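User: Fold this, then the next.

Assistant: Folding the first:
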Amino acid sequence: MTKILITAAGSYGDIAPYTGLGARLRAAGHEVALATHDSYATLVRAAGLEFRRLPADPRTRRTATEPGRPSSPGGNRDLMRQAAAFIRELGTGLADAAREDTGLLLLSATTAPLGHHLAEARGIPFLDLPLVPGAPTGDFAPVVSGGRSLGRWGNRAAGRLSLRVIDRLYADATRELRARLGLPPATPRTVRRRAEAAGRPVLHGFSEVLVPRPTDWRPGLDIVGNWWPWHAPDDRLPPVVEDFLAAGPPPVFVGFGSMAGGAGERLSALAAAALRRAKVRGILQSGWAGLSAGHPSTDADLLTIGEVPHALLFPRMAAVVHHCGAGTAAAGVRAGVPTIPVPVTADQPFWAARLAALGVATAPIPFKELSGDRAVARLSHALTQATEAPARRDHALAAAHRLATEDGATEVLKTVEHLTAAEHPPA
């Protein structure tokens, strides 16, 4: 039995997959804690994991320039400053999360550049578990570049530049954390290159159904399949949702997760109008945007819901409209239903393009274009394409069957047990 600490930071989609992974490790006999923000304490404890607090909770740090809101002319610079401040605050709490008896660190993409210093100072083995591809490759451009290929040379160059940008974001936090841990000064780039040179394993928590392993990645960079958010085996959809599903044909899900804060009224009206024009029923998930279909008596073909496991809801849908975060994109594929991608920012255009290339999604509608006089017509047309094209649903079902053969959490467990056996060989 190993005392394992998982660290993850960000929004729901950055945290929830690690609850399922942690539950799998716990079922194998390990003692598992998950360090993350206060907003997810209930989620962590429900999965049977110990909760440890990390600062910088995004639910309490949202600002006027958050993704999905218009930014000022200096918006990119503002976002970089905000990201660096988020990381510095995160670094102040990360060292406190690891106890003296921690035997293994499992690190998300956001926490890994900080966790490596903690592992060095405490002599704790670690394993990086990102949810998106981060290592440069000629096969595709960096996930934050919008999903458009720049050619093999251009893709690799952009990938290296992306890593340097990340190094810059972590520079202040690295300096402060290393000083606190009593480590000699070292830049994020130096520490990153040291880990790369050591050839340490990195297990990526997504499926090759969506992203085949790049041909030019070094050995040890592996794609193992998704680890899914935990939910109780006896979980059921709320009665109000079951009643709505029973009252008519399968509806379309519309939700933007942690995106589009403050745009709920406009998006709700747009979604309702598009659903009516496409002659389909709809379920609107409130999320951070605050989507709402209004009072049920106003339109019996629309329903507003809060947090519901995608694993239970998506298979009951005719199609799903969402922002294409990594976890939501994978959940749609897993459910075998077509997607209408509305990517907002960061890696979302990348996943939207992957879904479309796989044939399980309509052409992406960038969020910034989901406004103006033609927005309702454009979304309505996509809804009709998604719900009335048998070939797209066939592609979705075929992808779901492939995804069902994968077990990412068990692949992580195998590597965890290999690492811990190497650290503590039998006497």
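Now the next one, as you asked:
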Amino acid sequence: MSAVITTSNLTKRFKTHVAVDSLNLDVPQGAVYGFLGPNGSGKSTTMKMLLGLTQPTEGEIAIFGEPLTLASRTRLLPSIGSMIEAPPGYGHLTGLENMRIVQDMLDLAPAQIDHALDTVRLSEHKGKLVRNYSLGMKQRLGIAMALARDPALLVLDEPTNGLDPAGIEEIRTLLMHLAGQGISIMVSSHLLDEIDKMASVLGILAGGKMIFQGTRDELFEHSIPDLVIETPDPQAALAQGIAAAPTPEGIRISGIDKDQTAEVVHRLAIAGVPIHEVRRVQQSLEDVFMDLTGRGGLL
């Protein structure tokens, strides 16, 4: 797939603090790109640079294959819808009145506003004051504002932040629906397992550096899940000099590959230790993330 966003050595320094460090992004067209990392990892700063809201200290940005410059901004940015940090909107106005402001600013047709409200399922609530909206409704209104210009790309910073599980699921369903309509989506979050349910490509940021970029399957190849060996005699297994932790069902071993697993099983069998089952522990995206960031290595 061609890329809707690429960056080369993108860097942002604030005095002595490096917020984003030599970032090379590659956001494929038509994908949901999950931009992950803990709070303070540089996600919001990166997104602001992609939208021309903050100037990079170093590096280059290309949007739809064209370099993002002061001259090209006015041509490129109308094809991008965005919501950065907090959902926009004036609380003393209704949802529709807020959307009309967007319509006037961007010189949009009324049908575009109606379609955006329909897409996020706010049409029946468009007459309510935004201050009376739930947080989930405010987030959906922010996404409607981003969608009003019929963008080819959505850039959303923490759209599920602060939502309850039902609200998170609602936003996830909406974003997957939009992706199904051909809109490329870059969405940041610190909720790793939630992004795992919707993203086809992942970029993981830690300390301003990209520690992984690729598919979920590629990510999981970089992390070795723990091995559980079920045995009724864990003490006999531990007596063989194996670096393992006892569990109620046997022993648990960390960080060994297939060949090392075969060697351990062979050693236990030779020693006469009964083995009932050998299996890998199922990992979540958060498990893998913590493993990688805990090691501090870059992939």
